[in-house]
Every structure is written in C-alpha cells, then in structure tokens.
Amino acid sequence: MELGIAGRRALVCASSKGLGKGCALALAAEGVHVTMNGRTAGTLEAAAAEARALASGEVRTVCCDITTEAGRAEALSVAGEIDILVNNAGGPPPGDFREWGREEWLAALNANMLTPIELIRASVDGMCARGFGRIVNITSSSVKSPIPTLGLSNGARAGLTGFVAGVARQVANRGVTINGILPGPFDTDRLRQGIRYIAEQAGRDFDTEFEERKKTNPAGRYGSPEEFGALCAFLCSAHAGYINGQNIVIDGGNYPGTL
User: What count of other Cβ atoms lies within 10 Å of the Cβ of residue 78?
Assistant: First the structure.
C-alpha cells in the first residue's frame, strides 16, 4: 500500500534501537524525511545508516537526551517543521513501589508523560496550521493491563494517555491525529531488562525465564520492531486520518480482554 506520506517530515524520538528504531526505518522506507534521536552517538549513527539504506528521503540525526529541555529544543531545531511526531523514551526501571521515592516518580513522569506533552505542545499548532499532522505516542500495554513490577511506567504512561484523550479531540478537525501504540512483549533491550529482574527475584535462570515467557503468548513468540514500525507507519499515513484518540494494543493477543 502506498501510504501517501513521502516528503513529509518526521521526528522519531529514542530511535537508535528497539521500537523507536523500527518506526524510523518504516517511515524512512516510505520516503519520509526522518530525524532520528538517541543518546549514544555510535548506536544512533549505526541505526541512521540502516535508515539511509532504505530511504529516498533525508535522514538526520540528533544525539541528545530528549527528556531534557535542551534536548527537546535541539531535536526540534534539527527536525524543522515536522508533520509527524513519534514520542518515545526509555521506560523507568522495574521494582517494588515501596522502594520508590519522590525523585523516582518525578523522573518517570518527566520521561514518559511530560516530555511527550512538551513535544506535542511545541509541534501541534504548526501541524494544524498546515492541515496535516500525525502524532504517535509509544506507551505500553500496561496502560490497559498494569504490570505489577512496572508501577512507575504504569502510572506515567496512563497519565499521558488520559491527557491525550482530550487533546486529540480538539485537533481532529484540523487534519491532525494523536494515537497511542501499546506494545506488549517485543524482543528489545527493555523486555530483557524486565525479564532479567523477574528471573533474579525468583532465583531463576534468565534464558529459561525468557523462553518460558515467550511460550505463554498466544502467538508463541515475541514481536519484532519491524512489525511495530509497520503499524506506526500506517497510523502516520494519509489513510489513517479517521483514526484518532485511540490506543492500539499490539501484543500477539496477550491482552485477554474483549475491548
């Protein structure tokens, strides 16, 4: 399917690896001018090289911490007038909520709620003025089905989701959509970090835990960043203008609810 977004400009946050990288590669393959972001220069440039191999558009990089005010300003400056914003940031660590104090909560809220809101605030009016915009927030399936060991993530991402639910309805008539993608178990560093924590708490071997958890998914496997990127690219496409304010779970059928 031709997605109709060749020549558009996108900022994809935290896209040097994992799900963000999957999104950046998928958009680059559609001819979108992509600005990729990450905190480690070598990893970021390697990912950008992969994107350039697929791209007919331009691929820019900005090595910065997107969760800081200076980082956001730099990323937006490099990206220019964007038509597509993919919000993403590394999730907070797993643990027991009894161990977390105010600083841990503020860090989680800053990265996974306030940073996306700030980037939306900085870009949405320009999108409205130009009559086209796609904002995709990478959150987590924990928004619908909280994960006990990821309380910091559960709270921060649910807060972002509640905020976006109102804003999305305010801009839909200007050609701008805002949606969330809620990933379940994808084979990323983040997943491995969580499984390692669970295995250590239970006194189990990581490899055994990793394989056993894979088998519990109805699909019998973990998802790939490429699959995630394909969904993101469609939500950013010219064909997705009537999908707005939604939170789409992509998890191999792991979420057990009807709705």
Answer: 16
From 32, 7, 34, select the one nearest 20 (Cα to Cα). 34
- Distance CA(58)–CA(232), nearest Å, equals 19
Contact (CB, 8 A) for 32 and 57: yes
- Reference 241, options 178, 167, 183; nearest CA is 178
CA distance 83 to 101: 38
The 10s digit of each residue's pLDDT in 161-195 is 999 999 999 999 999 999 999 999 999 888 888 89
pTM over 0.90: yes
Six-digit token string for 219: 């699909």
